[in-house]
Amino acid sequence: MPKIAIIGTTAWGTTLGVALARRGVRVKLWARNEGEDQQLNDKRENVALLPGVRFPFRLNATADLSEALDKAVMVILAVPAQTMRQNIKRLSEYLDSGILIVSAAKGLEMESAKRMSEVIAGEIPEELHPHICALSGPNLSQEIAQKLPAVSVVAAHDIVVAEQAQKLLNSPNFCVFTNTDLVGVELAGALKNIIALGAGIVDGLGLGDNAKAAFMTRGLTEITCLGIVAGASPLTFAGLAGIGDTVATCAGNLSRNHYVGYEMAKGRKLDDITATMQGIAEGVATAQATRLLAQKLGVEMPINEQLCRVLFDGLDPRQAVKELMGQRMGQELVEIIKHLEPQRIRRWL
To answer: How many domains does the chain have?
Structure first.
């Protein structure tokens, strides 16, 4: 059986390792230090982030990068977006010419507003760039770890590369589609976390399902506009990485981003909320990075702007909603239509 290395003992990294090992793949889960890898191997579960989910015998942890990547056909980077650069720098010397490099992070780098594939490409040899993929979709780790059915999408610029990754990742309970719109899949997966923050605010304020559905829909319109200008297909935002992941992440219960928004609507401060959380709500840093990216691309994003004001500038969530509702309403979807240039449409079809 093939060997896959997973960088990051996050809940998502651990879940992917468990899911792959269950179907017989040899998995090495890289931990940051020897104490952590020894604890994972002794306990045979990630007690802190995924308690009760036992490691299959083909899943083992190691703190040695060379051991993790030796003879691996794929490396999955399941690390927070803001640590992606330091992690890929650390392992770049261990990557051989045939390895597939899969980003499982859903965020943008805050300082540069770059997608994860762009961050990875900047730190590895150019000949490995075609091997970069992104995994995204409605994938709540707790459900997948419990063997509940889930579907995802793996994207790469080259369909052959995407299909190679698909073959390695696919399993009976975790079905993987392919996509060649790497830009769209990454942006949809990252930006939907911003929508989830807002959906949490709507739920926290008790504004009802009508308001939540409207917010999610208008949020999708807004991030689709940014995606189009960045070179993505609007169709991607109607797929698993877009509307699929948005629905799952905005549902509540298992979403960290929804939780942050909900708690802020109840009056808690952002720093207080994040300090007591296990795991990272990627939408917080992504909202700030998206503000920068929108400015660079000249795209108006009023929803993201209001969320940034709530997150970082102390704007009261109720006032943010009031201001959004007070905007002049025009023709629905006109924002998307104005970006649909004929040459782009021909490229997507």
So the answer is: 2
Q: Which domain holds residue 110?
A: 3-180
Q: Which residue has the tokens 């499982």?
A: 104
Strand-pairing partners, residue 171, are: 174
pTM of the prediction?
0.93
Q: Report pLDDT digits (tens) over 284-303.
A: 999 999 999 999 999 999 89
Are 160 and 43 found together in one domain? yes
Strands 150-155 and 132-136: antiparallel
Contact 107, 82 (CB under 8 A): yes
Same domain for 121 and 189: no
- Give Cβ neighbours of residue 235 (< 8 Å, ≥ 6 apart): 181, 184, 348
Q: What's the burial of 209, exposed, middle or buried (CB within 10 Å: 0-12/13-18/19+)?
A: exposed
Catalytic residues: 192
User: Where a domain ends, among 134, 159, 180?
Assistant: 180
As a whole number of angstroms, the distance between CA 289 and CA 82 comes to: 11
d(CA 12, CA 142): 8
Q: Over the stretch 231-260, which tens digit does the pLDDT of each residue have? A: 999 999 999 999 999 999 998 778 999 999
* Phi and psi at residue 348, to the nearest 5°: -75, -30
Name residues whose C-beta falls within 8 Å of residue 197's C-beta, 6 or more positions apart in sequence.
Answer: 257, 258, 260, 261, 281, 283, 284, 287, 307, 311
- Compute the distance between CA of residue 245 and CA of residue 156 in angstroms, rounded to an integer: 18
CATH code for position 199: 1.10.1040.10
CB 31 within 8 A of CB 61: yes
Paired with 3 in beta bridges are 26
